[in-house]
């Protein structure tokens, strides 16, 4: 029997069905259902996660995630950026910190007002800490991919390449197994236990997308816990639904000569 990995947005159908969502139905049938949130295994995200887990920055105060483009006419002329991009970048935050205590969303369309969601700044609050997920189609000078500040230090990590310059691949995409160039590594600065300021480079290794398939096989064959939890999936999709509703609440701009 096949056990497909579903793209996050497809899972929306299960969410809208209330308690009879896809994961609940899978449990009833003794099957395994797990969305393909493979971006948890991006090399840059794993570098960020390793810094957080090391404890060197202390308590998280501020984390900013950027995934931006420069496209003069936007990406879509309708909704879709949230479910195409934020489904992964929001999931990365949820995988680190869980369900936020509260949220603040700024969602707009710069190129197609009232018709799209090509700009968003999604803020998630965890106690005294805040994490945000940001995407815009109007960024020609890169932000860092991640900027992290804590009570004991800071970490910043540049994007490997500007997204607007990435070449589209038709068919299977070959994953580069080499580490990122050293000028693309992260920089960690922190105060150690002796009160000294320490600066070090954090390597960015290749993505490890195979881990999600390994975990799925272990969940099916050995009953191991899934690395993508059902609750996490639902939290992400609830956030995307709320953010999309905000985008839809903006009025469509009337063109010249268009009737009211």
UniProtKB/TrEMBL annotation:
The cross-references to InterPro entries, in alphabetical order and at most eight, read:
Gfo/Idh/MocA-like_OxRdtase_C (IPR004104), Gfo/Idh/MocA_oxidoreduct (IPR051317)
Q: Which residues form the Gfo/Idh/MocA-like oxidoreductase C-terminal domain?
A: 49-250
What Pfam family does this protein match (any one)? GFO_IDH_MocA_C
The family line of this record is: Belongs to the Gfo/Idh/MocA family.
Its name, as the record gives it, is Gfo/Idh/MocA-like oxidoreductase C-terminal domain-containing protein
């Amino acid at each position: 029997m096949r056990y497909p990995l579903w793209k996050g947005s497809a899972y929306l159908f299960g969410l809208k069905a209330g308690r009879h969502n896809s994961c609940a139905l899978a449990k009833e049938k003794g099957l395994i259902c797990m969305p393909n949130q493979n971006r948890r295994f991006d090399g840059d995200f794993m570098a960020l996660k390793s810094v957080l887990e090391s404890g060197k920055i202390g308590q998280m105060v501020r984390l900013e995630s950027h995934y931006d483009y420069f496209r003069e006419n936007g990406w879509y002329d309708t909704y879709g950026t949230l479910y195409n991009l934020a489904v992964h970048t929001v999931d990365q935050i949820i995988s680190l910190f869980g369900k936020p205590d509260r949220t603040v969303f700024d969602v707009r369309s710069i190129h197609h007002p009232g018709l799209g969601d090509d700009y968003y700044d999604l803020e998630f609050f965890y106690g005294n800490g805040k994490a945000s997920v940001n995407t815009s189609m109007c960024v020609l000078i890169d932000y860092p991919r991640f900027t992290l500040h804590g009570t004991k230090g800071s970490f910043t990590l540049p994007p490997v390449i500007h997204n607007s310059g990435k070449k589209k691949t038709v068919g299977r995409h070959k994953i580069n197994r080499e580490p990122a160039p050293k000028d693309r590594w992260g920089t960690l600065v922190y105060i150690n236990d002796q009160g000294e300021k320490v600066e070090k480079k954090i390597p960015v290794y290749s993505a490890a997308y195979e881990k999600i398939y390994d975990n799925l096989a272990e969940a099916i064959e050995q009953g191991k816990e899934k690395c993508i939890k059902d609750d996490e999936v639902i939290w992400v999709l609830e956030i995307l639904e709320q953010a999309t509703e905000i985008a839809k609440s903006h009025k469509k701009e009337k063109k010249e000569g268009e009737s009211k």
